[in-house]
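Repro:
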Amino acid sequence: MKYSKFTYQKSGVNISEADKFVNFISKNTGKKKQRNKNIGGFGSISSIPKYYKEPQIVASTDGVGTKIEIANLLNDFDTIGIDLVAMCVNDLIVQGATPLIFLDYISINKINLKKLKSIVKGINKGCQISQCNLVGGETAEMPGTYSKNKFDIAGFAVGIVDKKKIIKKNKIKKNDLILAIPSNGVHSNGYSLIRYILKKKKINLKKNKFLRNELMKPTKIYVKEILGLFKSNLIKSCANITGGGIEDNLKRVIPNGYMAQINLSKIKTKKIFKWIKEQNVSSDEMLKTFNCGVGFCLIAESKNLLKIQKKFKKDFKPYIIGKIVSGKKKIELNEKIFW
């Protein structure tokens, strides 16, 4: 029996297409001054800014979960790159760190240049918004691991903060306000539940303009505003509201002996969350799975409220949803029905 020559390409991996993609990335990440221009090298080398006295490195990693399945279904890959950056850099700024560099990892069954270019353009845009540099990454073509058209993405961000400026819990005191910064919608959490609802309700997402638009809205990047607030000493602490909702995320920044008392009826929720709630999802499940309209929480003194609000554009102005009181529970949610 005769066999044709075995090649990597016949096994499903196309190195020449991968090289084209690397060249595309190199050309599309050098439009602004960067600490690193070595895209395509073996490793990224970046300089640490000189104005830090005792620089501390803060690192985070995340993905966008099954939101990529919605992107696949709609053949829309323009914004999930922004989501990827947001999910990483929004965690860095909670500790007062300025995002410095970002790397991505894309694994896919077969390289599709159009799809990958759209994803990377989004990543690049997210990096520009958060003022960090896309310095490298990895694209893995993995036939047999992923089925046709399937892929996954992960992000890795590194930030920097002076040791004396790391955000700590000890500044939080009784009667400090808890402020909610509006989210841009669902962001990148809870999509497995949303997809389950769509499947069970037999909803054609391609024909539903409202859901199509809402579910592809990119995660809001809060870097500029939050770091500006810390620089001006207007806030004491903050929390990124992702998976686990307000309760699981906010309690992580509350010091012992204090409790965040949240009045849920004050939350300005959004139409998309009301729609999800109407699909027979309990209030407890909503609060545990989604941000419910609150993308970020701030803890600040009442005297700084107006100054804080002036730092934000109209659609994202922070507003009061609670206060810090004495207690052992870390967090207390009042009036659970706020739909």
